[in-house]
Each structure stands twice: as structure tokens, then as C-alpha cells.
Amino acid sequence: MAYLIKGVSILGAAPTDLFIKDGVIAAPFEGAEVVDAGGLVALPGLVDVHTHLREPGREDAETVETGSRAAALGGYTAVCAMANTSPVADTAGVVEQVWRLGREAGLVDVQPIGAVTVGLAGKQMAELGAMASSAANVRIFSDDGFCVADPKLMRRALEYVKAFDGVIAQHAEEPRLTEGAQMHEGEVSTRLGLTGWPAVAEEAIIARDVLLAEHVGSRLHVCHVSTAGSVEVLRQAKARGVRVTAEVTPHHLLLTDELAAGYDPVFKVNPPLRTRKDVEALRQALLDGVIDVVATDHAPHAVQDKECEWAHARPGMLGLETALPIVLSIYGPQWELIADRMSRAPARIAGLAGHGGDLTVGSPANLTLVDPSARRVVDPSELASRSRNTPYAGMTLPGRIVATFLRGEATVLDGKAVK
Ligand SMILES: NC(=O)N[C@@H](CC(=O)O)C(=O)O
Ligand SMILES: [Zn+2]
Ligand SMILES: [Zn+2]
């Protein structure tokens, strides 16, 4: 299809017409399908470097297709699928399967992340080279869900991926400091009598890993940064020129540990929700660029894994369909900031060449149209995700994603997925 996006504001600029043909932003031409975009803002398609799609293995919680649909509805055109599936994505075969499922769904580009260690067990390095040279072209490797705790293994993995400009995305959690942990260690955990996950369990691993990355000259990416102390470690490492990037989730930018007080497991997540002081530090770090990107850590869970006793519930929350509204609610219409932290920088980290570009003639037509003046109440039953574990149920959030285009084809129109 060929489209004329009429009267759209590109990143908040004066309204203009945007033409799309043959998968790219085109020069003006006749005969296009007109999309009335008065009052809408065009952004480069969002890119998520941290998504859990659960396929293969937990198709009752999410599939590549349902997660892709949730992503498109959230304004995304590319997502990086975490490796903690069953079987684990630790071979060329599994990453190629996920990559192929993404192509078949055709709603976003699904870029598989490969595991660092066999079975995420932290003992033996997985076949990183085979995954890199597979059809899935893997560049990000992560044992997310678990920390690569062994420093020697972490060093070797960092060294190994240098050959193909890969990056190790670390879930920073010193396992000995978080045994039995249920929530952030602090005043609230003491009051509730829940075992705490101290901030230092994250900060100690980030400090170690930036030193390792510096030592071997490799790229490190830090997943879901959650504490003010982590921000300081990253600030110092970046000032020294260490090749480190970092992400923050929408929930760590908005929610605090006080929410655990009702023992509703929808608020249980790793790393845990922290304090107001941490939230403020994370917000500032994203503005400063000490934290490079917003990543959803979209973590769908089936009802029986979430609607149970707090201690038995799986950690994790949905994120794809609410990420942009949450960021808008915090930062307001800072479109340049949003485009950089949610599209340009994540595309660069993931090495996704066709994404995160400027919406200029000749570039791939990966974009999303947002109505910043609309407000919506989050209704879990309306989400496209197969799971329902959103912590934002009932909240009124700004911004409605009206349309999304992947290589010039609409994946979302009128706020609805086209397939
Ligand atoms: N964030 C979570 O609480 N859970 C994630 C794993 C992870 O990101 O660590 C999951 O896979 O469910
Ligand atoms: Zn994690
Ligand atoms: Zn995760």
C-alpha cells in the first residue's frame, strides 16, 4: 500500500504531509491512501531491546504473534526477544525458530537475543558464534532472568562477542545477596516482613562488569537499572569512556516499593520496585543520557503464575502496550528525547539498521503516529497480550497510538491491529 499521512507533526514540528511508498518515506506522489493525521505526532517506530515473548515453551502466557501484536499497538516496529524460553534460545536452531516466527507474524521485526550460557545455567558458554552467524544474526546475548555471576565466564563472553561487535546484556543481580528475596530491601520490606533484595546486589555486579568491560574493551549493556547507586556507577564508568549502555523500564520510572503493601503480586518484579529517591535518580539519568534507553522488560505471565500468594508468584509485568503512555505521563511531549531513548538509541544498541532513523525521504517507513491529547484508562481485558499482568489497570494515561507502519505496511490503523 501507498499512504499519504496528512497534516502530521514530525517530532512536534509544524504539520506536514508524509508520503509512504514501496516501504520507504517517499517524495510527494498522486493516488495514495490518505490517513488524516491532524493533531497526531509521528515518531520513528519504537524499538524495545528487552521483551519476553515466551515462545517456545510458554505459549499460554504469550506467543511471538500475540507479543508482536501488543508491540505494534504500543508503537513498536522492532523488539528483541529474550532468551529465557523453553527450550532456552542457546543454539542457532532456537534463535532461528524465533526469528522465523517473527517473520511469519509480520507485525514487528523480532530480533532474537541469544543466551550467554547453556540453559542459562551459568556454567558453560553457549554457541555464541553459531547464533551470530545464523539467519537470526544475533548480536545481543543475555542470560536475563539470571545473572552471569561467574566473573571469569562474564569476561570470556565479553571478549568473545567483540569479534562480531556483539554485546552482553547483563541482568545485574548478585545471587548470594538475593537468596529468597521478595521485594526491595528497605523500610517497607521490614514492615511487611518480606525478605529484601538490596540495592547493592545490583550495584556490585554493575561495578564489577563495567571494570571487566573496560579491561577487555568490550561492549556491556545493563538491563533494567533500578537504583540511584547504579546510576552513579554508570555515570562514572561513562565518564571514563567505558563502552557501557543501560536501560530503564517504564515501571521503574513510575512505581515504588510502597505498592507491595497490598501483597498484590502484580507488583512483584525483578529487579524490584525501589524507593521514590531511586525513581527520581532514574528519571534524571534518562534525561542526562547516563541511562541510554527505555526498555519494557515486557514479562507476560499466565494467571496461575501471577494470581497466587506473593511468595509463589513469578516476577514480571506487561509493558509493551503502555510504555509510551507512561513515558509521556512522566516527561510530557519531549518528542526528541522520546525518539532518542525509545527508538534511535535502542536501534543502535541492537544493531538494527532499518530502525531508529530519521523520517526523511528514502529511509525505511518504520514509524508510529501518536495522539498526544487522547487519554485512556488501562483495561487489562483490552490488551492484545495473552497475559493480563499489567500494574497499571485502572490508571488514566496520556497518548493513544493511532497507527504503526512496518516497512511501509500498516500494522496498526485507527488504534487497531490490522491482523
Ligand atoms: N523481570 C522479571 O521480573 N521477570 C523476567 C525476567 C527478568 O527480566 O529478569 C521474566 O522472564 O519474567
Ligand atoms: Zn532481568
Ligand atoms: Zn527480562
UniProtKB/TrEMBL annotation:
GO terms for biological process: 'de novo' UMP biosynthetic process; purine nucleobase catabolic process. One of its GO terms (cellular component) is cytoplasm. Substrate binds at residues 52-54, 84, 270, 301, 315-316. It is an enzyme of class 3 (hydrolase). Keywords: Hydrolase, Metal-binding, Pyrimidine biosynthesis, Zinc. InterPro entries: DHOase, DHOase/Allantoinase_Hydrolase, DHOase_cat, Dihydroorotase_CS, Metal-dep_hydrolase_composite, Metal_Hydrolase. It catalyses: (S)-dihydroorotate + H2O = N-carbamoyl-L-aspartate + H(+). It comes from Actinoplanes xinjiangensis. Belongs to the metallo-dependent hydrolases superfamily. DHOase family. Class I DHOase subfamily. Its EC number is 3.5.2.3. Residues 41-228 form the Dihydroorotase catalytic domain. The active site is at 297. It comes from the Bacteria. Signal peptide: none annotated. Catalyzes the reversible cyclization of carbamoyl aspartate to dihydroorotate. NCBIfam families: PRK09357.1-1 (NF006836), pyrC_multi (TIGR00857). Binds 2 Zn(2+) ions per subunit. Zn(2+) 2 binds at residues 144, 171, 224. PROSITE patterns: DIHYDROOROTASE_2. GO terms for molecular function: allantoinase activity; dihydroorotase activity; zinc ion binding. Pathway: Pyrimidine metabolism; UMP biosynthesis via de novo pathway; (S)-dihydroorotate from bicarbonate: step 3/3. Its cofactor is Zn(2+). This is Dihydroorotase. Zn(2+) 1 binds at residues 50, 52, 144, 297.
